[in-house]
Structure formats: C-alpha cells, structure tokens
Design a protein that fits this description.
The protein has about 450 residues and is an alpha+beta fold. It contains 9 helices and 26 strands.
Length: about 450
C-alpha cells in the first residue's frame, strides 16, 4: 500500500511539473500567435506592444507575411532558459521569449522575421555576414552606421577618400569692388569615379586673431576620376578687411549627400566576401585607429602593472604587464584606459598611472621583486648566454627580494649592490621565477 501511495505521489509531482512546463509553452504559443497574426495583418501597434524594442531599430521593417499560426511550435531552450517559437522551419523564422523576474513572458528577439533595409542587406551579403545565423536585432546592431563593424569597413575600404588641401587666400580691390578668394583642392584617392552629386564642400572662414566665425560657404561637388584632383574657389567680398590685414583663416570639410555612409560603402567599395570574418578577428581595429595612441606600460619601480577585466579596482586581473612593454592605448576616462597588443587584441583595462602615451617615459628603473620556484631555489644564468643550455652562475633562495631590470622583450636581468655602493648586472633570471603576485 505504501508502495502504491509513493508511486502515486511521484506520478502526481511529475504531472504537476509537466503541467507547469506545458503552461509556459501554452502562454508562449498564445503570444506567438498574437504576434504572427498582427504581423500578417500589418498591425504595427500590436507588434510594438508585444516587441517594443524593435521600434529603436529603424533599419528593420516588416517582411510581408511570416507563415500561418497553425504551424507554430514551441520548445524550451534549457541552456538559455528561453522559449523558441518556430514559425517557418524552411525560412528559419523564429521568435525568442524569456520569463523575467516577475514571471512575465516577453518577446526578446526574432530570427528571419524583420527585413534589413536594402542597402544594409546588400552590404551584409557582400561582406560575408552570416545573416541567417544572426538574430534580427544582432543584424541591426551590426549594420548600424555607428557600429564597430561599419567603422571597420570604413577603415579598410577607405571610405573617407575625398581629401581637401588648402591653397591659401587672396584679395583684390578693383573698380567693380572688393574680392576675397579662398582656394582649396579636393582629391579623389579611391579607385572609383565619384559623382559630384554625392558630395559637397563646406568652407568655414573665421578671424584668425579671435576665432570669430563668419558665414559658411557651400560649394557643390564635381565628378572626380580616380586619383583626380580639382581646384575650387570660395569667393566672399565681405572678408576683404580681414584678408588684407592677414587676419583670416578657414577650414574645409567634405560632406556626403548620400543617405548614409552605407551608401558610399556600397557604391564605391569592392567587397571580397570575407570582411565580416576579418572583422571578427580584429574587432577593435577601427577604434584603435580612430582613438588609439601608441604607448608603454609605466609601472615605475614596481616593475609590473595589472590589466583588469573591466574598469574597476575590484575587477579580475587578466594579465600582468612589465614596465615599458609596448601597447596601443585608448583612453576611456581620466582614470582608465583600454590597452591592446600590436595585433589589435584587447589585453584589458589599466589604471591611468600605469600607462604612458607621451613618448617621454624615463629610462627603466630597477624593480624590487621577489623570487619563486617549486624547489626553493632559483637559478641565475649568464646574462650574455642566450643558448638553450644556459650557464648557471649562482642560485638564490625562493622569496628573496632582488633588483631586476625588465626589458621591453620581457627579459629579467638581476642586479646586485656592490661593496662600493654601485649596482652591477649579475645575470639573467627566467620569468617563471618572478613572483608577480598572481596565482598560476
């Protein structure tokens, strides 16, 4: 009797669990049905009510119809604790739902449901973006004109290929009146002809001594063949007094008339099909080129500095960098910088006092550090012997404080103070015998 009761209890618990699971799936299917119905009817109000975040992505639009509600199937993704409502298996159209902390089921993403604008979509396909593997929101973020990916394409495709050069200004006074001519040239550095309809030039004059700005002049573009340079003149008689007193300066800025930088990418760039793959290998390249400075680690007599996972003193240390190690630096704030190696790979975040981008860092000081080893002894090798079998000249005990020179190549040279007070290079120590304060 006890066995039967116990079996019935287990059965009941399983039934409750299944009901709970089926209940969530049922609610997800109900929401998915509402969404698909609204989508097929073009009911944007309901779509935005069920999926409000989609309103922020202007590059995404409705894509006709997305199948029938009778075809919707729901499965739980245990690895992400989300529910996937599949609408059309062949077209890989899916809705992703999640349950928030209050138990509310929300639509958080979609696949193959919304359509990228034609320009973004064509660039994505030409650049090798796996459009069917990325969600609609991931695609919209990737193809945003301000995204890291588009910035990288601009860098690699040299989209900013119209270059302005100043030619100076001149002034004259004739019987017909005063005249001031500001001259500049525009050069097309690309391998494609640029239409004059696609750009214009803004000339901004100002008083040189005070910086007082005058009215700008707009100059229409002209067709430019590959590598062609054309001279332009901006004429403004009202600036005669400033020009004649040599108290005039001006800037020249090329502006593109196309809808966005994406149009220029599409119209004037040649794609190889591997641009996305290349970007994923160097995701910080454009940021470093635009904002980065070359620098070195400046750890002073500490000899080492730490790179953190994020900008926080309590963050996890992800790397130890030696004094004067060369790095690329992007200043994130007055207190922190993101640092990269010379392959454009992010190392981590470092405190401002441990980074130097001035190019004027002092000569390497000696760092006071401790030794470590598994057997309690540390070998000191001949400083000039770089063969694989190094000559041991002495041994030192683990834990001893020593004076070390740390080179840019990460080599450690041991120095010792002599009886006359001078400091002399003694030999070389392997890096695994340096206690950097981190657990192995």
């Amino acid at each position: 009797m006890r066995t039967n009761s116990f079996s019935m209890l287990i059965f009941a618990l399983c039934a409750i669990a299944l009901c709970s699971c089926d209940s969530n799936k049922g609610k997800v299917k109900e929401l998915a049905t509402q969404f698909v119905t609204a989508y097929n009817e073009g009911d944007k109000a309901t779509i935005y009510d069920l999926f409000p975040i989609i309103k922020t992505y202007e590059s995404l639009s409705l894509n006709g119809s997305i199948g029938q509600v009778d075809d919707i199937s729901v499965e739980k993704n245990d690895s992400t604790d989300s529910y996937i409502a599949t609408i059309n298996v062949q077209k890989q159209q899916r809705l992703v739902f999640a349950i928030d902390s209050l138990g509310t089921i929300k639509l958080i993403d979609t696949y193959g449901v919304f359509r990228l604008d034609s320009i973004s979509n064509e660039i994505a396909l030409k650049a090798g973006v796996p459009v069917k593997k990325l969600s609609d929101i991931e695609l919209a973020k990737l193809m945003n004109s301000q995204s890291d990916f588009i910035s990288d394409l601009k860098l690699m495709k040299e989209v900013n290929f119209l270059w302005a050069n100043f030619g100076g200004y001149s002034w004259s006074r004739t019987s017909s009146g005063f005249n001031v001519t500001m001259t500049f040239t525009i050069r097309n550095s690309s391998s494609n002809t640029v239409s004059g309809k696609d750009y214009y030039v803004i000339v901004s004059p100002q008083q040189k001594s005070t910086g007082r700005a005058f009215s700008t002049k707009t100059i229409d573009g002209v067709d430019l063949a590959p590598n062609e340079m054309r001279e332009f003149n901006a004429i403004e008689p009202s600036l005669y007094n400033y020009a004649s007193e040599r108290d005039l300066s001006y800037t020249v800025e090329v502006k593109y008339r196309t809808e966005s930088i994406l149009s220029f990418l599409l119209n004037y760039s040649k794609f190889e099909g591997n641009e996305y793959e290349d970007f994923m290998k160097h995701p910080y390249r454009a940021k470093i080129r635009a904002q980065g400075k070359s620098g070195v680690v400046n750890s002073g007599k500490k000899g080492i500095a730490y790179a953190y996972k994020d900008m926080s003193d309590k963050s996890k240390v992800v790397d130890t960098l030696y004094h004067r190690k060369g790095i690329n630096v992007v200043w994130e704030s007055e207190s922190w910088a993101s640092v990269y190696d010379f392959d454009d790979i992010l190392i981590g975040y470092m405190k401002a006092e441990d980074v130097d981008t001035s190019g004027e860092i002092q000569e390497l000081p000696l760092a006071k550090m401790k030794l470590k080893s598994d057997d309690g002894k540390v070998n000191v090798y001949d400083a000039d012997d770089k063969n694989s079998e190094k000559k041991v000249i002495k041994t030192l005990p683990t834990g001893q404080d020593v004076l070390l020179e740390i080179t840019e190549d990460g080599e450690f040279f041991l120095y010792e103070r002599q009886s006359d007070g001078s400091i002399k290079k003694i030999g070389r120590i392997n890096d695994e015998n340096i206690d950097d304060g981190l657990d192995d």
